[in-house]
Automatic annotation (TrEMBL):
<protein>
    <submittedName>
        <fullName>Retinol dehydrogenase 12</fullName>
    </submittedName>
</protein>
<dbReference type="InterPro" id="IPR036291">
    <property type="entry name" value="NAD(P)-bd_dom_sf"/>
</dbReference>
<keyword id="KW-0560">Oxidoreductase</keyword>
<dbReference type="InterPro" id="IPR002347">
    <property type="entry name" value="SDR_fam"/>
</dbReference>
<dbReference type="GO" id="GO:0016491">
    <property type="term" value="F:oxidoreductase activity"/>
</dbReference>
<dbReference type="Pfam" id="PF00106">
    <property type="entry name" value="adh_short"/>
</dbReference>
Length: 300
């Protein structure tokens, strides 16, 4: 079944085809979920909290995050829910968030790099196209900084089928300024970020045998920042946020995945990624470029 059709087929109007995961006792486990105040991130935070996990909600808006924390505590009875402030459009803020977590002396079992979307324009203070930094580069830095506390943990990169649209990564485009916000490059920018997430997953599996890494396609609405004609056309084909979060939650908890790493998943099953993921030269180039971009913020 073609990838795009497969994605749409298991989306909103066919959500009853979504596979379900088995609950696991996560008491004593610790997770960080970026973008945890809404959408997939909020649903993932809620799901893990229900299983007893200690959840840190990565968020840019502290007041909004505190409200979500209280909501989750009331619904689950789990008081181990906290806010981890971070601005993904500011690499120094990401480093500060990583240091804040490490200062708590906790082991990290799950890092869910979830935050992101399609259509974010402009350029960050660090000099990168906003979608590239928010969707991917800040998550790369966050992961690198948290590796010391991730021994035997899991990294879940929430990607999308859109990563299959690219036949290369345009390293010049990631520094281009989309002055008018959403424009004709929005889909390319988005696909770049999602491809980088899948390449990141593969490289992590090669470099760190003590960490399991996974990427996935959630089949939910990432088009909230895109102009109305595209948003209105695509939104009916995406599943609910609750169902859409199933795959990333499953990747975080499933015992059967303990010895799998570096793979891409869709609807709770292994799926075929972009062929570039199997090109070692591309994987290596991507990693070297990413390290170069965040070098000033890495722990020395």
């Amino acid at each position: 079944m073609p990838d795009l059709f497969k994605s749409l087929f298991t989306g909103g109007m066919y959500s009853f085809f979504q596979r379900k995961y088995t609950l696991v006792d996560m008491t004593g486990k610790v997770a960080i979920i970026t973008g945890g105040t809404s959408g997939l991130g909020k649903q993932s935070s809620l799901a893990l909290a229900k299983m007893g996990c200690h959840v840190f909600i990565g968020a840019r808006n502290k007041d909004k995050a505190l409200a979500v924390v209280q909501e989750i505590k009331q619904e689950t009875g789990n008081d181990n829910i906290e806010v981890l402030e971070m601005q993904l459009d500011d690499l120094s803020s990401v480093k500060q968030a990583a240091n804040t977590f490490k200062s708590k002396g906790l082991h990290l079992d799950i890092l869910m790099n979830n935050a992101g979307g399609c259509g974010a324009g402009g350029k960050t203070k660090d000099g990168f196209q906003t979608a590239f930094q928010v969707n991917y580069l800040s998550h790369f830095l966050l992961t690198e900084l948290l590796l010391p506390v991730l021994n035997n943990g899991r990294v879940i990169n929430v990607s999308a089928w859109g990563h299959k649209l690219q036949n290369k990564i345009d390293w010049n485009r990631v520094r281009q300024d989309d002055e008018d916000g959403v424009n004709e490059r929005a889909l390319d920018n988005y696909a770049d970020t999602k491809l980088c997430q899948v390449l990141h997953t593969r490289k992590l599996s090669q470099l760190h045998k003590n960490i399991n890494s996974y990427s996935c396609h959630p089949a939910t609405d990432v088009w909230r920042n895109v102009y109305a004609p595209i948003k209105n056309m695509m939104t009916p084909f995406f599943t609910s946020e609750k169902d859409g979060s199933n795959c990333q939650v499953w990747l975080a908890i499933a015992p059967e995945l303990k010895n799998e790493s570096g793979e891409y998943y869709f609807n709770l099953a292994k799926d075929t990624p972009n062929p570039l993921v199997n090109d070692q030269a591309v994987v290596d180039e991507y990693y070297e470029k990413s390290r170069e971009f965040v070098a000033p913020f890495l722990d020395q």
